[in-house]
Amino acid sequence: MVRFDRDQRFLHGGDYNPDQWLDYPDIIKEDAEMMAVARINTVTLGIFSWAQLEPQEGVFHFDWLDEAIETIYQKGGNVILATPSGGRPQWLSEAYPEVNRTDQFGQKHSHGFRHNHCYSSPIYREKVQVINRKLAERYGNHPALSMWHISNEYSGECFCDGCQMNWRQWLKNKYGTLEAINQSWWLNFWGNRYTDWSQVVAPSPLGEHKVHGMDLDWKRFVTEMTIDFYLAELRPIRELTPDIPVTTNFMAEGHDNHDFIPLEGIDYGEFAKHVDVISWDSYPDWHNNFETVARTAMKSAYVHDQYWSLKRQPFLVMESTPSEVNWHQINKSKRPGMHMLSAMQQLAHGSDSTLYFQWRKSRGNSEKFHGAVVDHDNSMENRVFKEVAEYGRRLETIAEIKGTSKEVKVAIIFDWDSNWALKRGGGFGRPTRRYPQTLQEHYAIFWEQDIPVDIVTSEQSLGQYDLVIAPMLYLMTKKTMMMLQDYVRQGGTLVSSYFSGLVNETDLLYLGGWPKPLQELFGIDLLELDTLYDDQHNQLLYQHKFYETKDYSGVIKVLDSQILGTYETDFYAGTAAVTTKNYGQGKSYYLAARTGEAFLAVFYEPIIRSLRLENQLVTQGNPEVSVQRRVGKNCQYHFMMNFSEECQTIVISRKVTDMESGQSLIGKLSLKPYEVRIVKE
Amino acid sequence: MVRFDRDQRFLHGGDYNPDQWLDYPDIIKEDAEMMAVARINTVTLGIFSWAQLEPQEGVFHFDWLDEAIETIYQKGGNVILATPSGGRPQWLSEAYPEVNRTDQFGQKHSHGFRHNHCYSSPIYREKVQVINRKLAERYGNHPALSMWHISNEYSGECFCDGCQMNWRQWLKNKYGTLEAINQSWWLNFWGNRYTDWSQVVAPSPLGEHKVHGMDLDWKRFVTEMTIDFYLAELRPIRELTPDIPVTTNFMAEGHDNHDFIPLEGIDYGEFAKHVDVISWDSYPDWHNNFETVARTAMKSAYVHDQYWSLKRQPFLVMESTPSEVNWHQINKSKRPGMHMLSAMQQLAHGSDSTLYFQWRKSRGNSEKFHGAVVDHDNSMENRVFKEVAEYGRRLETIAEIKGTSKEVKVAIIFDWDSNWALKRGGGFGRPTRRYPQTLQEHYAIFWEQDIPVDIVTSEQSLGQYDLVIAPMLYLMTKKTMMMLQDYVRQGGTLVSSYFSGLVNETDLLYLGGWPKPLQELFGIDLLELDTLYDDQHNQLLYQHKFYETKDYSGVIKVLDSQILGTYETDFYAGTAAVTTKNYGQGKSYYLAARTGEAFLAVFYEPIIRSLRLENQLVTQGNPEVSVQRRVGKNCQYHFMMNFSEECQTIVISRKVTDMESGQSLIGKLSLKPYEVRIVKE
Amino acid sequence: MVRFDRDQRFLHGGDYNPDQWLDYPDIIKEDAEMMAVARINTVTLGIFSWAQLEPQEGVFHFDWLDEAIETIYQKGGNVILATPSGGRPQWLSEAYPEVNRTDQFGQKHSHGFRHNHCYSSPIYREKVQVINRKLAERYGNHPALSMWHISNEYSGECFCDGCQMNWRQWLKNKYGTLEAINQSWWLNFWGNRYTDWSQVVAPSPLGEHKVHGMDLDWKRFVTEMTIDFYLAELRPIRELTPDIPVTTNFMAEGHDNHDFIPLEGIDYGEFAKHVDVISWDSYPDWHNNFETVARTAMKSAYVHDQYWSLKRQPFLVMESTPSEVNWHQINKSKRPGMHMLSAMQQLAHGSDSTLYFQWRKSRGNSEKFHGAVVDHDNSMENRVFKEVAEYGRRLETIAEIKGTSKEVKVAIIFDWDSNWALKRGGGFGRPTRRYPQTLQEHYAIFWEQDIPVDIVTSEQSLGQYDLVIAPMLYLMTKKTMMMLQDYVRQGGTLVSSYFSGLVNETDLLYLGGWPKPLQELFGIDLLELDTLYDDQHNQLLYQHKFYETKDYSGVIKVLDSQILGTYETDFYAGTAAVTTKNYGQGKSYYLAARTGEAFLAVFYEPIIRSLRLENQLVTQGNPEVSVQRRVGKNCQYHFMMNFSEECQTIVISRKVTDMESGQSLIGKLSLKPYEVRIVKE
C-alpha cells in the first residue's frame, strides 16, 4: 500500500467525469483551473466509463483517460482509478444478455440503470477481467495512480439459473447432505423437506419464501457471491499492480425511514477482509425536519466509527455531497458552514479523505440535480464552490493529522447475521426489531459525552476494550458465548439485553431454556418477552426513579445475579428488569427491557465512572458539541464540533493549541454555530 | 359420527407434530409425560406430514405415525387424523409441476409455502386420494381415531388452463348460452359481449377485471371448486370409514385492519353442507391497543355464533393459541387469566373443544415464535404451560356440558353473495361497505345484554326465531323476498336497512323502483342513498333525541309504513329515516341510515322488551360481563365471563349452582378480572 | 363544420346506449318519451357498440342503430356518432391478439376492460378503418348526424414490439444519429450510451428507467402515436364526410389526490390541432370534504378555460354527471341546485353543450352506480331527472348565447413538456413540484375577482394579452425565450418564477448561469433554490407585511431589476425574493419563492389596477360568486353564480337584464345558495 500513504495530504477531491464532457473542451480546461482553486488533490476516474473505454467488444480507446490522468498528475494530484463493472456497455448486454440480472420473480432484466449485473455470469467475469487487465497494464505504473476503486457500490441479488446452480453448490459445500439442510432449516415444518438436490432453489415469492434458515443462508450466499465476483475482478489488478491498494465503496442506508445505518444487505465484516482500505459513501440527511442536527451527527458518527472499526485503521470517505443529493423526497442543501463541519467530522472519526460525488454536476440524466463542487453555473463565485475551496485550504493546515490512529476503550458488537435473522423472524414486534437503531441509542450515550466507541463484529477481538456492549445479539454460536465468557472472566465489562442468544447459526432456537453459558455469565434465565404496542409502556424502577420501557419488556428469572432495576406494573411487576453479576475478574449486565436513552444515560453513568472512560480533556461537555480525538505518535488531535445553530461552550482541562490560529486554549471554550476547531496537544 | 361423540370429555389438545422431532427422541418421550400433566386428551396428527409419509412417489413410511397414534391411544387419548394435502412433498411438485397454482397474472408458482395447490389438477387429486386411502386403510379402524381433518385451511384461487376450462364448463352448466351470460353480466356495457366460448376466461388484471357479475360468479366458482376438491379428497375416506366424522378447519380474518370476521373468500354456508362437524381456527387479537377486551370478546363471540349457526350444533375450535401468534405486527401474549377466559368463551358459545395450534413450538422455520403449550424452554414451570394445565383440570369438572345445545330466538342473516357483490360494486362509499362489520354492530347490542344470537345464511329456515335482523342484504332473489314476507306474515319481526334488496342473483339492479315485494313488506320505496364522508353526519331524530348517522343516509318515500325517526338536516331534513309496518301477524322495520350503536341500542330496546328476548337469568347485566347459556336435556349451563381488568358485578334472578365449588348463588354476583364461572340450573 | 353549428340550441343530452337494452323494448320506447320531457336534443351513440355492429368479422348489423338515429331525428334531435375503437369485440382480440396492449414489463394483456388497444397495430388500424368507413357510408348523410366522436378518452401506452419499432423510428427521425441521442439524453452518465440502433428500447422498470431525456421523449412519442392512431381512424371519416366536424373527448384527472387538472399523459396542445372542436369529460368532485364548493368551482373553471384556450373557440362538455360518479372512494350526489349551477358554469366558460355520461344507468357491470339522467327506478319523479329537465328548460331561454365568444386579457402559460420534465427530474422537492396546481393558485386570484383568464401553451400567440403569467416554465427553448422577450418588449407584462428556464428541449441544463435572454428580460441571475419541508417556511417581506414562503425559496442575484420583496430569515435573509424590471415597452416580474395565495393577491393587485383588468361590470365582487362573461356580436352575457350554501351579494355598475325574468338589474344583487342568474347587456 505504498501509493496511497505516499501523499502527506488528506485526500480532497472526488468523482471526476471528463468522459461526459468530451464535446465540451472548454469545460475540461476549466476543470483543471477550478480544481486548483478548490485545492483538489485527488480524483476518482472511470467509474462508469466502460462504454467509452471499450466502445466495441475488444476495441479500446484510452486517449481521454490518458489525458485526464496526465493532467491530474501534472497538477500534482492523485488518481483513484475505478474498474468499470458498475455500468456495462450496451453492446455487452446485447451480445451476452445473461450478464443482466434475473429478479426473484424469475424475470430477466434488460440493459439499463446500473449496478445490476449477474455476479455469477462467467462471461461477465471474463469481460470485466479483460478491461481491468487493460487498465492495469496501461496505468498500473503511472505515478499518479494511488489506489484502485473496484466497481461501485456493490449490492443486490440475482436469481438466474447460474446463480441457482451456485446456490445449490454453496449449500452442498456447507451442509454436505440434504438431511443436514432439512434439519438446519427445520423443513419438516409444513413438510417441505428436500429429497433431491434438484429441488433446491433460491427463495422466491412465487415459491419458497417463509423459511427463516433458508433466508439467512441466502443472505450469506449473496455476500459471498458479491465478494467472489469482486475477487474475480481483482485478479488481474493484483497480478499486475500488487503494490497499489484496493478498495470498494461501502454504503449506508435508511434515509427514507429517518434512519442512517450501514447497508444491511451485505456483510461488510466479511467484505472488509478482502480490501486494503475501507471506503464508504457518506450521505447523512443534514437539516432534515425530523431530528436535530446533533442527532444526525450522532448517526453519521456511528457509521464512520463502524467503518473505522472494520479494520481499526484510517478509512476513506469515497463519496459525499458538498451540497445536496437528488434522491430524497425533500433535498436540502447544506446551509453555510455545514459543509465544513460535516467534512471535518469525517476526519475526526478516522477518515483520511473528503471525496465528493461529484466534481461537476452532470448536464442531464438521472442525477443532474445531485450536488457537486461545480454547479451548472460553472462559477467560482458559487457558494458551494467557495465553501469547498475554504475547506481545502483548512485541510492543508492540519495535514499532519493524516494517517493518525484512534484509541478506543468501548466497543459495541454489531452482527450482520443477527440483524438478518431478527428482521426475518416474525413474532413479537415486527416493525420494532430495529437492531442497528437500538445500537445507535446506546452509542448516543457515549457520543454525547465525547467517549469514542468502536463498532465491531462478533468475530473481532475484544481484549483491548474495557467495556463491550452487545444488546440484541440474537444469533450466538457456542463460540461467541465462549468468547464473551472469556472476555468477562478476564476482567471485561459486558452489557447485553433481551433478544440476545436465542438462536444458533441456522436460526434454530436453543432448547431447554437460555443456553447454559449465558445463564452462567449473566446469572439469569429467560421466561417471557412481553411485546408492547407503540402507546404501551412499563415502568422501570432504577435507583428510586422511574423510566419507561418501550417495545419489549423481558421477564426473567434471577439465578445468581444482583437486581439493579425492577418493573413497576403489569403481571410481572416487581420482577427484575436490570441485573448484574460479577463473573471472573469482570462484570456482566443484562437489560431485560428496551428503554429510552434517559435510562441508558443513568445506567451507563457508574460504569463509565468506574472504568474511567470519561473524556479526559473535556471536563464539562455539551451534547451539541462533539469532541473526537485522533492519536498520532507523539501528539493528540481533538476536533471540537458544534452541531447546533447556537453558540455553545465546553470546558477543557488541559492546555491545547489551536492548529490554525496557533492560539493556546484552556478552560471555557466557546464555539460559534456550526464551528469546528482542531486543537493539538 | 360415532367416534367423536364417544368421548365424554371436552376435547383438549391440538396439533401435534412428532414428525418434526424424530431426531430428538427425548422430546417425543417428554411429550407424552407433559401431555398427561396438561390434561391433553386429543391430538391432531399429520397435517403437514406427507413428505414423511410418502418420501418418494409410491413409497410409504408409517412407523412414526403408528407409534404416535399408539402412544396417544395408550394414554386414553383421541386422534384427529389429517389428510396431508395442505403441504405437498417436493417430489410431487417436481414430477407434476401442474399441481402448483397459477396466479391471476398467469404466473405459474413453484413449490414452497403451503395451501397452494391447484384444485383442478387431476394428478393432484389422484395423488391425494392415494395417500388418503393409505391412511384410511391403515388407521380407519384404529380405536383412537375419532375424526378426520381434511386438508388444512382451504383457501385461495388458481388460474391455470385446467381451471380456466373448469370455469368455462361451470358457466356452461349454469347459463347454458353465451347470450344468457351477456345479459346476466350486462356485457353490452363496454361491448365486451362473448360470441364464442373460447373467449370466456377468468377475471384477471391483465384482461377483464371490471365486470361485477363475472367477479361474483368467480367467487361462487372458487367456493364450488374448493368443495369439489374436498369431496374428491373425501372419496376414499368415506368409502373406507363411513362412520368416522369429517371436518375441515374454517378461518376468520381481518386482523390487519382491526376486524375479526369469518373468512370472506369462501362461502362457508355452502361448505358446511359437506362436513359432519364445523371446526374453525380461532385467533382473536386479545389485548390489542385499538379496542377494549370486551370488544374483542364480542367479535370473537360473533364468529363462534356464526360457526355454531351453520349447522346449529356443537362445533370444534380446531386451532387457537395458548399464548400469542407470530403473524401480527405486534404479537401480544395472553395476560395471566386470559387463556382460561377466552377458552371458556369457546365452550360458552357452543364449542365442544379447545384445541391448540400447537402442542410444542417448532425449533425453526416460519412459525417458530408462534405460541404453543410447550415452549422452547420445554418447561412445565412455564406460565403458559401451567395455565393450559389448569384449564385442562377445570374442563374435567364441567365435562357434562359437552354435547349440549343452545336455544336462540334472534337471528342475523349474513349472505356471502351480498358481501362479495357489495364489496365489488363501486359507487357510494367504497371503503365504507363493511357489511359483516355492520352486522357485528347489531350483534353487539344483543351480546352486551346476554341475549344469544344466531348468524344464519339467507337459505336457512327462520321459523324458530322471534326476531330476524337482515341489514344490507344487498343481493336478494325473489325467493328470499318471499321467504322474508312469509316469515313476517306468520308473526316474525324483521329488521332491514339501506342497501337491502337492490340487485338480483347476477348483480343486476332491480328496475322500476325497489322490488314490489319489499315495498309491500316495509311500506316504503327508495329514492336516494346519500353517502357521507368520514367527518360528515346527519342527525336522526328518534323519540325526542338526536343520533348521528354515518356513512349512509338513505332517502326514502313512505308508502304505508309508520315513521319512527326522521332526519334533521340536509335537503332531506324531515323525511323518514326509520319506519315500521305491521304486516300479516308480524312487523317489519327499515333503517334507512347507518348509525352508531347508541341508536341501535335504543332502537332494539322496545323490540327486545315486546318479544321478551331478555336474558331471564341476569336481571342486572354488565356490558363487560358476558353470560352465555348452553342447554342440556334437563339442565342449563351459564358461563359468566368478566372481559375486563376490573372486578364486575351482575345480578341474577334465580338460584344456580357453581359447577366447580358447588356453591349456591343468587342475587349480586361479583367476578374478578378475567374471571369465568360456570353455573348450572 | 356545418352541422354542429346548424342547431341554434345549446346541445343537451349525452351518451345513449340503446344497444344495452335491446332485450327491453319498453325501456327504449320510454327513452324517447322521457328525453322529450328532459329537453334532450343531442345524443352520443355507439361509443362501445362495435360488438353489436360487427358481431363477427365482416358481418355488420346496423338495425338498432338505424332505428335509434331515426328516432332521435324524428324528435328533432342531433346525433353525435362515435367510432367504436374504445372497445374491441371479443372476436377481434381473439383473432388478432396483437391489438391488445403490452405493458412496460413486457406482459401482453388479453381482452377486457376498455381503452387498451395497441396504437401501433396495423391490423387494429385496418379493422377500425373498416368499421369507421361503414359508419360514414351509412350515416354520413343522415340529417341527424351533427358531429363525429372519434373513439373515447384516448390514453395509455403500449410497449409491444411494433411500438418499440416505432419508437426507434421516431428517434431516428428526430435525432438522425445515435450520437445525437447520446448527447441529448446525456447517456455517458452511467455509461449507457448507444452504439447500435438495436439497443434502443422503450423505458421499462426492467431495463432503462432513469434517463430523464428518454422519459421526456417517450411522453412526446406517446402523444404523437396517439394522434397518429386518431388520424388513421379519421381517414375514412374525412374522406366520406368532409363537412362533419370531428372531436374526441379529452379528460381531467387528479381526483384521488384532491386535484382537478387536465390530463397529464397526453399533450392536448398538440392534439387540439387535429380536432375541429374541443370536447372534454368534466367530473369535478363537488361537495367533497377537503375544500369549499367555491374552490372546486375554481378548479373546474380552470380546466374549462384551458380547454377553451386550446382553440379559443367554444368547446363542448362531452360528458358530465347529473348526480354522482362511481369511481371515487366516497361518491357524493350533487345536492339540489348544484346540477343547475355546475352545468351553467360550463356555458359560462365557453361550452356550447351540457352532455351527460349517461342518459340511463346501466343495469349491471362496472359502472352500474354511475349517475345518469334516468335512474334504475325509471321515474320522471326522480330528483335528478327533474333537475335535468329544469335545466333543459332554462337552456332554451338562453339559447342565443350559443356560439358566442370570450374576451380575455390575461393568459397563463401551461407547457406539457415542462410538466413532464419537472415531475421526472428528481432533486429539490419531489412531491412538491405541483406545476399545474401552482398555476391554479395564480388562476384563483383572477377567478375570485371575476377576471377571465386563458390558459395557453408556450406555442400560442400572446399578442392579445395584457398580462402573461408563466411560472415554473422549466423547459424553455431559445425560441420561447425570444417570444417572451418580444412580448414584453412590445409592451406586455410578464410574471415568471423559480424553476423557469432551467433546461432545454431535451432536459439538459443551461450552463454558465441562467440563460442570458432571461437574465436580460428579468434583470437577475439565479444562485440557489432552497427547498423547504412541509413544516418549513421563510418570510417574504413585501410592502411592510410578511408572507410565508413554502416548498421553494429561490436565492437570486439582482443584476438590474428592482427589488419588490425580500426574505426575512435564513442565510439568504435580506436578499431579493420578488423583483421587477422595465423592459422595452413592457414590464417583467420574477417570483423567486413559492407563496400562498394571500401574497399572490397582494402581488397582482397593482398589476390588475394598472392594466385595468378589473371586471368592469362587478364593482363589488364576492369570492364565493363567480361572474363570467360571453361576448356576442352585439351583446354581452354574464353568468352570475353563487358557489356557496349561503346567500351572497355583489354590486354591479351597469344596468343589465335578467334573461329569464326580463327584470332590469343594477347595484346590489343578491343570489340565493347555489343560484345562477344569466344577464345580458
Keyword list:
homotrimer, 681 residues, 6-stranded parallel sheet, 28 strands
Fraction of residues in H or I helices of chain A: 25-40%
Low-confidence parts of chain A lasting 5 or more residues at pLDDT below 50? none
Tell me the structural class of chain A.
Answer: alpha/beta
Oligomer: homotrimer
Number of helices of chain A: 18
Radius of gyration of chain A: 26 Å
Overall pLDDT confidence of chain A? 97
The major sheet of chain A is characterized as: 11 strands, mixed
> Cα distance, first to last residue of chain A?
29 Å
- Strand fraction of chain A: 15-25%
Instruction: Write down how many β-strands of chain A occur, each being a DSSP E stretch of 2 or more residues.
Output: 28
Principal-axes geometry of chain A comes out as globular
Largest interface: chains, residues each: B-C, 57 and 59 residues
